[in-house]
TrEMBL record:
<dbReference type="InterPro" id="IPR029058">
    <property type="entry name" value="AB_hydrolase_fold"/>
</dbReference>
<dbReference type="Pfam" id="PF00561">
    <property type="entry name" value="Abhydrolase_1"/>
</dbReference>
<keyword id="KW-0378">Hydrolase</keyword>
<dbReference type="InterPro" id="IPR000639">
    <property type="entry name" value="Epox_hydrolase-like"/>
</dbReference>
<dbReference type="InterPro" id="IPR000073">
    <property type="entry name" value="AB_hydrolase_1"/>
</dbReference>
<feature type="domain" description="AB hydrolase-1">
    <location>
        <begin position="69"/>
        <end position="176"/>
    </location>
</feature>
<protein>
    <submittedName>
        <fullName>Alpha/beta fold hydrolase</fullName>
    </submittedName>
</protein>
<dbReference type="GO" id="GO:0016787">
    <property type="term" value="F:hydrolase activity"/>
</dbReference>
<dbReference type="InterPro" id="IPR050266">
    <property type="entry name" value="AB_hydrolase_sf"/>
</dbReference>
Amino acid sequence: MIFRIFTVFVLGLFGTAIPIHAEESKPLGIRLEHYEYPFPVEFFNFTAQKQSLEMAYMDVRPAKANGEVVLLLHGKNFCGAYWERTAKDLAERGYRVIIPDQIGFGKSSKPENYHYTFHSLASHTKQLLDELGAEKPHVLGHSMGGMIATRYALMFPSETRSLILENPIGLEDWKTMVPYPGIDQWYEKELQTDADSIRKYQQESYYDGQWKPEYDPWVEILAGIASSEDYPRVAWNQALTYDMIFTQPVVYEFPLVKVPTLLIIGQRDRTALGKASVPEEISAKMGLYPELGKKAAEAIPNSTLVELEGIGHLPHIESYGKFITPLVDFLDR
């Protein structure tokens, strides 16, 4: 059962929060124990950094396989569940679709002590694919998932069929513009609640204008986690991943990408980590996706840029038709 959350505050990309008003209130658990995913969930068990970890994943098999695999990597404020429609359509076209929750997210382990790097997350994901016998995937990453996807393609170029980046973060190096906040400050922000700023941010950056019912689940999931008894552990993991994003940019390595690449860039997106903590004259120059998308396409060899006018940070939820058409054209080429 998918529960609705009543007046719970949810933390967003800038450590602020949004109230969700709905019919009933129930915590979903820090591993979303009480939230049902759209496809059967399995777990990949492995050991890393002297601890046992579980990576949740969905393996969506097509009725008539074309022999190719698509790996879908979620963003920081999301889990694998938001790929439901994308996975169904790709499976109908013959693709096997694998959707992991990264460590620290969704139904995967929330370790108390873990050193997050994009290298380690990409390595864990590769281990999962090897375990499943899923060879040479097309790797699609949204938001933070785009940074993982880029790292995956850089680490395993001969075992990556193509790279697709949907409004990835990390197209600029924020630590050159924003004072380093430190993990403790990220953590304190994760524990704060600020109702107005995050709703304003989501409406402007994610969707703009009228809020639609289909947007609710991606806030309610975070609300259900935030209302769980062990939420501080999740907040700590979130703080560690903020630090990873801030200190480990991939933008400088775009020229080293060796696989065909598609960039799908919503032009209204203005996402930038730490933008709220710098003067307006600096923040106004951050997160300019129309410019950043072009620069990334110029830097990445053999890349194609698709610009989605009027669309924000979340094209596959806000405007699915505009997202899926260039994606399948690229995959089926």
